[in-house]
Amino acid sequence: MLYAEPDERPEDIACRWRDCLQDRALVRTKDEAIADGLFGPVCERVRPMLGDVVVQAAGAVTLVDSRTQGDKATHLPSVHGSQTALEMDIPCLIDMA
C-alpha cells in the first residue's frame, strides 16, 4: 500500500506505477480496490487506514523500498506474490470458537 502526500492525487500515483510496472503488478487506487471488493466490506472507520494506492505484484515480482531495503530483500522466501495461483490457492482458516 502506498500513502499519498496531501498535495498528491492517488490517481496520478497509480498512473505512474502502472506505467512503470505494466503487467508485473496490479495497481489500483483505494477507491478502485474497494469497488472491486479486494478487502471485502469496508466500514468508514477502516477506510483511512487503507493505503491510497494498492499495488499487488504478479508472478516472480518483489516490490521493496530501495531506500531502506537491499537486494537481499527481493530474494526472501517469505515475500508473497499476491496474484500467483499458488498464493491465491492457500486455504482460508476461520476460527469458529
Give the topology:
Blueprint: H1 10-21, E1 25-29, H2 30-35, E2 53-57, H3 85-88
Antiparallel strand pairs: 1-2
Key terms:
97 residues; alpha+beta; two-stranded antiparallel sheet; globular
Sheet with most strands: 2 strands, antiparallel
User: What share of the residues lie within helices?
Assistant: 10-25%
- Biggest β-sheet: strands ordered side by side in the sheet: 1-2
Coarse shape: globular
Distance between the termini: 31 Å
Describe the structure.
Helix content is 23%, strand content 10%. The protein has 97 residues and is an alpha+beta fold. The chain has helices at 10-21, 30-35, 85-88; strands at 25-29, 53-57. It has a domain at 1-62.
Summarize the structure.
It is built from 3 helices and 2 strands, in the order αβαβα. It has 97 residues and is an alpha+beta fold.
